């Protein structure tokens, strides 16, 4: 189990140092902003949805290693998927973070964040990107905050 924990830690560190899909999109169709005031994480998310599918996704902002890694892993996991699949994946991830289920294979590399649930204050860091994505897909205008979730 220690080897798996080491791998997960390496994945988080890698995605923090070299976040995937960090930047802006040329023509996003949906946008949302997220804020975790307890940790200082800020996230702006841009999504291009076409024909019911997340064609492209990018984020900018600043945050802790968990927040940045989670946003990076999330963008990789959802790009190219139908919106319905993205919404289901989002719910499975949030269930994992609430400690209500094991880190299943269906989560792929997202399971690297499963250890975060042992630190309740850090769960908000890991879920900020997912709450922001849900807001973007629903075309909600308000900034998402972890204090209202």
How many strand elements? 4
- Provide the domain count: 1
What is the first-to-last residue Cα distance? 32 Å
Write the element-wise H/E pattern from the N-terminal end onward: HEEEHHHE
Per CATH, which architecture?
A: Alpha-Beta Complex
Summarize the structure.
With 149 residues, the protein is an alpha+beta fold. It has helices at residues 2-17, 65-78, 83-97, 120-137, and strands at residues 30-36, 41-50, 53-62, 144-145. The model has no long low-confidence stretch (mean pLDDT 91).
Give an overview in words.
With 149 residues, the chain is of the alpha+beta class. It has one domain: Sufe protein. Chain: A (Alpha-Beta Complex), CATH 3.90.1010. It is built from 4 helices and 4 strands. A hairpin with a 4-residue loop joins strand 1 and strand 2. The protein is globular. The mean pLDDT is 91.
Helix and strand arrangement:
Elements: H1 2-17, E1 30-36, E2 41-50, E3 53-62, H2 65-78, H3 83-97, H4 120-137, E4 144-145
Parallel strand pairs: 1-4
Antiparallel strand pairs: 1-2, 2-3
Entry keywords:
149 residues, 4 helices, 19% strand, Sufe protein. Chain: A, four-stranded mixed sheet, alpha+beta, globular
């Amino acid at each position: 189990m220690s080897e798996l924990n080491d791998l997960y830690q390496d994945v988080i560190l890698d995605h923090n140092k070299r976040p995937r899909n960090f930047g802006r999109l040329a023509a996003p169709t949906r946008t949302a902003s997220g804020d975790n005031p307890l940790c200082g994480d800020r996230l702006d998310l841009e999504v291009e949805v076409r024909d019911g599918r997340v064609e492209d996704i990018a984020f900018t902002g600043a945050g802790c290693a968990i927040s940045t890694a989670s946003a990076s892993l999330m963008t990789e996991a959802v790009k190219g998927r139908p919106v319905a699949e993205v919404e289901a994946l989002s719910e499975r991830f949030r269930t994992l973070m609430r400690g209500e289920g094991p880190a299943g294979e269906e989560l792929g590399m997202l399971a690297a964040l499963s250890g975060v649930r042992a630190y309740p204050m850090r769960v908000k860091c890991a879920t900020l990107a997912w709450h922001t994505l849900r807001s973007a897909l629903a075309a909600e205008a308000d900034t998402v905050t972890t204090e209202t979730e």
